[in-house]
Amino acid sequence: MQQILKRAKGDRIIWGVVIVLSLISLMAVYSSTGSLAYRMKNGHTEYYLAKQLFYLIGGLAIIYFAHRLKYTVFSNVAVLLFAISIPLLLYTLFFGTSLNEGSRWITVPVVGVTFQSSDLAKLALFMFLARQLSRMQNDLGNFKKVALHIFLPVIVICGLIAMANLSTALMIAFSCGVLFFIGRVKTMHLVILMTSALLLFGVLFAVSKLSGFGRAETWEQRIKDFSSDKKEDVPFQVMQSKIAIAKGQMTGVGPGNSSQRNFLPHPYSDFIFAIIIEEYGVAIGGFGLIFLYLLFLWRSIVIFRRCPFAFGAFLAVGLSFTLVFQAFLNMAVNVNLVPVTGLTLPLVSMGGSSIWFTCLTIGIILSVSRFVDDAEGSQSNQTLESISQQATQNSDADA
Q1: 3-state secondary structure string, the chain?
Q2: Residues with Cβ < 8 Å from 45, sequence gap 6 or more?
Q3: Could you say which of 1, 139, 353, 372 has the lowest number of CB atoms within 10 Å?
């Protein structure tokens, strides 16, 4: 264990944030799975606690092994993963397993494990875009090359995801826009991309509405419910989330004392933030989680600024922003600032494959951080050696 801790490198603050979020996840999942255990007729929340602990330990192992790899390895596999993600998204769209009224999952034969193909596609897309942006810094003024090599992959991936999971597609598209802005893509080109994305969404909505394929009716209903002033139009889960937050107030009702966990749908995943606020209050549960995610983003931006190579810099900032943006979207849904999306709270919500993909993302960011630390340490040692040699030469000259 001591050898593992010694070999764990990269940004220590990010490691700390991951550990704290994992502990919060264990406490929140254990507290919020009582109704699930009752419905599944096993009656044991300890089962879900042990399951979540298994996924988190596996996630930490993924972070460790991913951060030990040199981050340039991910540039080499980015094209392959991107190519694989497209047929997987198509398979999910037409033959995917339907869970929670959405066809978003692929079931692995024999073992029966399910995972969201959008998680793989999201990771592959940002790795691919970081590679493309780093290679095309001198060609960003050529709109044809930018549209073909940078914009088109985003449109394809987001278009395939949108039919089954619009909220994830919009989150990815916005995160890509931020990455493009940081990557010095021209503003006019970004405006064209945004216009194209809106047109694509209009086409997808019209096709879904006319054919009945897709989730256009769900999108429309969620927007109507969110914009309605009538109390009876407020979705049940949003109303229960508001009640949980109101009960928690500033200090909370105490760990394990939530009452809304028995009424709120998916209190262990989509609406776990409301349960955390109910039990720990706005001051600790609410602002505490916001602080942790912002701290993670800040440290990732520091890695971005310190990294001397474009690929690593774009990789760190792109992956970190989409992870934190997802967290804030989940929290915004819980407090009714945006329509219901179905996005989970990264590293906190109960899950399996989603936790592992999130941990792989963090491991890649830490891989960039480890390289930056090693490079700066090597440069510092070379500087000290040159100073020592200069001092020795001066001493010999004086003698």
Answers
A1: CHHHHHHCCCCHHHHHHHHHHHHHHHHHHHHHCHHHHHHCCCCCHHHHHHHHHHHHHHHHHHHHHHHHCCCHHHHHHHHHHHHHHHHHHHHHHHHCEEECCEEEEEECCCCCCEEEHHHHHHHHHHHHHHHHHHHCCCCCCCHHHHHHHHHHHHHHHHHHHHCCCHHHHHHHHHHHHHHHHHCCCCHHHHHHHHHHHHHHHHHHHHHHHHHCCCCHHHHHHHHHHHHCCCHHHCCHHHHHHHHHHHHHCCCCCCCCCCCHHHCCCCCCCCCHHHHHHHHHHHHHHHHHHHHHHHHHHHHHHHHHHHCCCHHHHHHHHHHHHHHHHHHHHHHHHHCCCCCCCCCCCCCCCCCCHHHHHHHHHHHHHHHHHHHHHHHHHHHHHHHHHHHHHHHHHHHHHHC
A2: 30, 31, 33, 34, 37
A3: 1
pLDDT-derived band at 386 (thresholds 50, 70, 90) equals low
Q: Are 29 and 45 in contact (CB under 8 A)?
A: no
Structure tokens at 91: 């398979």
Pairwise CA distance, residues 321 & 47, whole Å: 33
pLDDT score of 318 more than 90: yes
294 burial class (0-12, 13-18, 19+ CB within 10 angstroms)?
middle
State the residue for tokens 């942006």: 133
